[in-house]
């Protein structure tokens, strides 16, 4: 190899090199461009997580652990031996989910991976799961809660409401987490002092351009980007307030609370959610995405690289010493780009409004479920009554037939006589 390089330098390229590759300036330019592209790709890929920590025996609850960044985080933590509880909208009996978990267990040689059905578009589903979780005595071990699930309506598509009547982006990206963390709060606070409990909230720099939370995002002003950015801003404001809520808890043992809320900006990544957004949720968009895949491949991170900052937030042991409510980007602490995130008055208003919306929606839904139950009971009763009437009718017919047969046989006997 060295001989070849020396030969090229002293005598020029060998005879077999085509003429097109003999121009040294052109070759230098090509090499320089390639080096620049390589460096840019490295830059866009972001930083690798440098932290290490033993995860064996730690219980990690994760939403959105079935795709994108969440799936990459789940896989890494499973490899490290953590016990994973995946909150998924599909029931564990679903064949696709069962396959996914089976494969994850096999690939990571970790059998401690479970799924629990929690549909984040439904307050009722969240309540059912979370109350079951906290109903355990003694309290179950819970080391970490990673909230990776989210939804992003592709541009140009319509505003969608959940079955419970709440705008979907607000519900999945913010209110579901508010509800889940609210109910699981006793479970987090009941963990022993030395457990280093972390609530990890992935966020997105789109929050910087979000309209202020004091402004209602009504149907007229709504668009997918605003709705997404606003839900991310709300999560940041609520996360700060939740940290204060945890800090304010007086532990029975008198020791300080060590639970931390940590925000993470994973950077732009090639995930199913991002693909849906870039392709505007259409077949043609998807065709374009595949045809020009080199562009997202170059500028966006893989889900695995996006997971690095979240893994840093999970694994870095020094984070337990600092205050909660910090933002991590590219595996290092950064400042928030908005002042209103730490505004207590805004947080209070948001908390109260969210509580009110949940109480009102849950009441309405409970009344609806009651009505449905009653209607179902009435339908069942009608069915039973109809079956009973049919049975009586059949009995009457049989008796009638019996009597007629008896009459005929007595009249035949009389005729014979
Ligand atoms: N991708 C990026 O470029 C980027 C940039 C900045 C921040 N982030 C943040 O990183 C996190 C992960 O993003 P991602 O792009 O990896 O997401 P993604 O690929 O779109 O995956 C979203 C996950 O959320 C789950 N989910 C959606 N609706 C649900 C529901 N109703 N109930 C239960 N689960 C539900 C999905 O479950 P199914 O598998 O069942 O669909 C899926 O596992 C998000 O918080 C996002 O805001 C991402």
From TrEMBL:
<keyword id="KW-0175">Coiled coil</keyword>
<protein>
    <submittedName>
        <fullName>Retinol dehydrogenase</fullName>
    </submittedName>
</protein>
<dbReference type="InterPro" id="IPR036291">
    <property type="entry name" value="NAD(P)-bd_dom_sf"/>
</dbReference>
<comment type="similarity">
    <text>Belongs to the short-chain dehydrogenases/reductases (SDR) family.</text>
</comment>
<keyword id="KW-0560">Oxidoreductase</keyword>
<keyword id="KW-0812">Transmembrane</keyword>
<dbReference type="GO" id="GO:0016491">
    <property type="term" value="F:oxidoreductase activity"/>
</dbReference>
<keyword id="KW-1133">Transmembrane helix</keyword>
<dbReference type="InterPro" id="IPR002347">
    <property type="entry name" value="SDR_fam"/>
</dbReference>
<feature type="transmembrane region" description="Helical">
    <location>
        <begin position="283"/>
        <end position="300"/>
    </location>
</feature>
<dbReference type="Pfam" id="PF00106">
    <property type="entry name" value="adh_short"/>
</dbReference>
<keyword id="KW-0472">Membrane</keyword>
<feature type="coiled-coil region">
    <location>
        <begin position="354"/>
        <end position="392"/>
    </location>
</feature>
